[in-house]
Amino acid sequence: MKITVKRYSQELALNENVTYDVALEGGTLLEVLSDIKTDQDNTLSFASGCRSSICGSCAMRVNGTEVLACAYKPQDGDVIEPLKNMRVIRDLVVDVDKAHSFMKIAHNWSSTNTTNLIVSQENEKRNELQSDCILCGACYSACPVYAVNGEFIGPFALTRSWRYINDVRENNVEDKINVIQTNGIWDCTLCNECVPVCPQGIAPKQDIAMLRSKSGTMGHMDPSFATTSFGSFDTGLPDFGSF
Description:
Layout (H helix, E strand, L loop, with lengths): L1 E8 L4 E8 L7 H11 L19 E4 L2 E4 L10 E3 L6 E3 L2 E2 L2 H9 L15 H4 L13 H5 L1 H5 L6 H11 L7 H6 L15 H4 L6 H14 L26
Parallel strand pairs: 1-5
Antiparallel strand pairs: 1-2, 3-4, 3-5, 6-7
């Protein structure tokens, strides 16, 4: 089996595709990359952690689609690349710090003292899926908005916003809604690119739509709406001019 890896190293003055012939069959992509590093090329760099699809550190792109290397089974001819929209440190290792920084901008933490609060099972499950986000960065890599606006708060940070805003224990919803109005929910095009690449089955697009609805009930609106032209239409009545 042959796989091609997009290599980049400033230190080695390397920026090219390198094809490796791999004997390992039936393994995960992470196992294949480890095999290459051990037996063929010890300069190959990639990130990994739990090897169980929990930590998200091994996210990368295969044939143009974001995957977790520890879960993906490679096929002959696969092309492996680092995540998009992030600074490549070396080979398949990218800097995700900026994407993670949006969690702070979006105030993604509980503002309530929950020590003595009792939550029903029904209310607990309201945020169960959003709480499963592993911050792998796949959704940021797939996001066309983040590709052109590096200040866009982005998919997993906005999903986490909805996780707290939708929490019955949260008593500072207004603050969390206010901070996601700029470079946030209205900048998203709802293109759905983030949904199929999420390894946890989370739908940031849906969460952003819910945040827009919540924002509307709190007096916010899409800032571009005021400048939108809806064209002209013929009423069928004579034009009497202005009075």
